[in-house]
Amino acid sequence: MVNASDQQLWHYLRQGDESAFTAIFERYHRTLYNYGSKLTADSSLIEDAIQEVFIDIWRMHATLSADINSIKFYLYRSLRRRIHRMQEKYHSDERIDEVADEATTPISATEESIQIEQESRVLLHKRIQELITNLPKRQAEALTLYYFDDFSIHDIAQIMDVNEKSVRNFIHRALTSLRQNRNWLIGSLLILWLLMSL
């Protein structure tokens, strides 16, 4: 099941295959946790929400839609809704604590250059985190979903329960805010990197 595509796993899950369920959980747990940490700093709430999402999926496996194009999209949207429901239930004041995705594996061949590259990525990660954390919550979420999680504007609108124009506005305002932050040179570097990836 490890090498099965998302569509195959979803098909087998709908038929009640426990190994497909386990494979989906193992494939997406870490990604979901990272996304959840952008919605709340409460790690136990994130874990509880992820568990509840998967419990619901298993409980309803026979009635799940066959027309799921992206398990990741389905899980992100489910987790976001679950966290917001849990926060409302527990009257949590804390909402979004933005973090960027983990650094990718360095390409350098020597150990010394790998270590230098890793340290640079950690510093860059911290700076990006600081910049994005200072953005309004919705702007930070839209920016992260678009640039770091590779969701389309359409998908982000569905995940955030807003229209596509609002998503574009959130991203535009976030980029504008980052451009105006002249105190950190890294702000300009981040904008260049984000704009180059458009």
From TrEMBL:
It comes from the Bacteria. The keyword Transcription applies. GO terms for molecular function: DNA binding; sigma factor activity. Residues 24-86 form the RNA polymerase sigma-70 region domain. Residues 126-177 form the RNA polymerase sigma factor 70 region 4 type domain. GO terms for biological process: DNA-templated transcription initiation. InterPro entries: RNA_pol_sigma-70-like, RNA_pol_sigma-70_dom, RNA_pol_sigma70_r2, RNA_pol_sigma70_r4_t2, RNA_pol_sigma_r2, RNA_pol_sigma_r3/r4-like, WH-like_DNA-bd_sf. Keywords: Sigma factor, Transcription, Transcription regulation. NCBIfam families: sigma70-ECF. Belongs to the sigma-70 factor family. ECF subfamily. This is RNA polymerase sigma factor. It comes from Spirosoma terrae.
